[in-house]
Write a sequence for this structure.
């Protein structure tokens, strides 16, 4: 229905001044992430496009609570996260500026998060589906255009999230929400890019054959 992120936000994040400065430094390193995460699943495709053998990097399972400790303790060289995860890594490593290896540098045709609904609901309630999508995308555009105001609103409803942290995360995500192509609205999907993304995921073994752009773009 809509592309929340025009590029994938998947990334490998590591402490600055450590063992990882670029993709080739991943060779021989141990990384941590949740089992079955997008970052882990897409790593083989990312690694091959970056010119490294994915088998030469080791992944270990971690929980949200254990990742920071393992990173700070030097048990792993980096973690799988999103581009916004740099703040958590910097906090866990006492303010060391994080290195972010963005998957979008290699997987350039892959969208990030998307807004979707079931075929059954879209066919039964097309008007409601379109109105919901339009309202959500308007809210997303407003949040990206004024991240400070959005940060205050997030903190009001989720006090555990500070306004400063929410504002900073929205600022990091803004280039991923807004398309680099002039004139495209927030949430835009391009059939050719969707087709290339499907082909990439099929080549990586993440989805089977038969999926076509029109199956995921129509309401």
């Amino acid at each position: 229905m809509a592309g929340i992120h025009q590029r994938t936000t998947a990334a490998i994040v590591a402490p600055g001044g450590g063992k990882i400065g670029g993709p080739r430094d991943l060779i021989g390193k141990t990384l941590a992430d949740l089992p079955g995460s997008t970052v882990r699943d897409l790593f083989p495709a990312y690694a091959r496009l970056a010119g490294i053998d994915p088998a030469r990097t080791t992944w270990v399972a971690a929980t949200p609570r254990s990742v920071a400790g393992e990173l700070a303790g030097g048990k792993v060289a980096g973690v799988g996260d999103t581009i916004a995860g740099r703040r958590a890594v910097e906090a866990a490593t006492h303010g060391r500026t994080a290195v972010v290896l963005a998957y979008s540098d290699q997987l350039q045709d892959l969208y990030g998060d998307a807004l979707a609904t079931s075929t059954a609901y879209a066919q039964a309630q097309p008007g409601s589906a379109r109105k919901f999508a339009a309202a959500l995308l308007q809210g997303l555009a407003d949040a990206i255009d004024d991240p400070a105001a959005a940060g205050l609103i997030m903190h009001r409803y989720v006090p555990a999230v500070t306004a400063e942290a929410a504002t900073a995360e929205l600022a990091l995500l803004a280039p991923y929400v807004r398309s680099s192509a002039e004139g495209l609205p927030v949430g835009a999907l391009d059939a050719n890019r969707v087709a290339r993304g499907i082909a990439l995921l099929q080549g990586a073994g993440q989805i089977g054959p038969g999926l076509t752009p029109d199956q995921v773009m129509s309401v």
